[in-house]
Input
Amino acid sequence: MAGVTRHVLDNGLTVLLKEQHSAPVISWWVLYRIGSRNEPTGKTGVSHWVEHMMFKGTEQFPGGDLDRQISREGGNWNAQTSMDYTAYYETMPADRIDLGLRLEADRMVNALFDPEEVESERTVIISERQGSENSPLFWLGEEVRAAAFRVHGYHHEIIGDETDLRTMSRDDLYGHYKRHYMPNNAIAVAVGDFKTSDMLKRVNQLYGTLPSGEKVDLFVRPEPEQKGERRVMVERTGNTQFLEIAYRVPPATHDDWFKLAILNSVLTGPSGMGGGGIDNKTSRLYKSLVETELTADIDGGLLPSIDPYLYDFVATVRDGRTLEEVEAAFDTQIERVLNEPISQRELDKARKQARALFAYSTERVTAQAFWLAFAENFESHTWFENYLARLEAVTIDDVQTVAQQYLRPSNRTVGWFVPVATENGEMVEEEME
Output
């Protein structure tokens, strides 16, 4: 991606700017280097809760007026909390973006965290978690992650454990905000219709005088090496069986991550750049599990992450078939990729799919700004710029090598969701995401 310039303000704020004059629109992102991976037991879910509180406003920008102000100027805004970051953005007409710049600068230091708002939002977030619990895949995914990570913060869900959501205080939230929401722990990105020198000057005016704060010491505990296959079983009311198999894999900064991305494209279809626009009906696992009517669906996912994470497969078992049958068929395909090189045709298709998915996922300024901030958070914005080139460099031998290294039984966690009857002996429908 040509034209990205990187700047660091005196207070430590990293700023990435990319002019794109195809439409009179600008997307402005502020990403904080704090996510659920940095939360200790007792404070799980604090980053996500703080994200909610940031929409409650400041004295300059009262919460009730923010939506109206953004909408009145023809823009949209939102936020997201992930394992590795929390990010906020505004995408607006180019001549109205100053509202977004001023808003984010103000709530970086002046968010109110009103005690009554904190308690109100506690109810909202607990309800959000309980709503997720209507899905069997939530329960299964939570158990698989908890088994795969015994020590590292990837152990828990981003939304947090309900016991922590009930006990955390306003001081816990505000302390988290004051420790982590500061320029030297943030990445700001603008993509769109502006002149770089003008944008940098305005960013310096609004953000350059903000206090950098103390050096941020993120809470992170390295996960010990896995010493054998782990298995979990979830038994809850429902009608459908699910199989989840998750292998421990390296972070996105490792060359093997790109080799695994090609492997994933062969096995289940491409992932890793936001999804959308590419189906997986020609993938190996779709043909062997779905077309044979063992499963109704099969998905694989490889998420770019700061620390080693998971290469995850989830299968929906068809009525009349068993988890044992599906797992055996899955293992047959894994053995095949361990013992036989993929074909040149499969490699070429994977590269083509990657290029298409990259195009779908990055055509808008909002997505481009996000990916620049996202990549800068764990390595450098150049990770995003070089994404396709690194995939193109993967060879057939590379794919088999990483399959043999990571897709071993001793390196995985297997989860079964087994539906059980209610007290009256009936099976019930589960709401699925």
In short: The longest helix spans residues 115-132. The first strand starts at residue 4 and ends at 8.
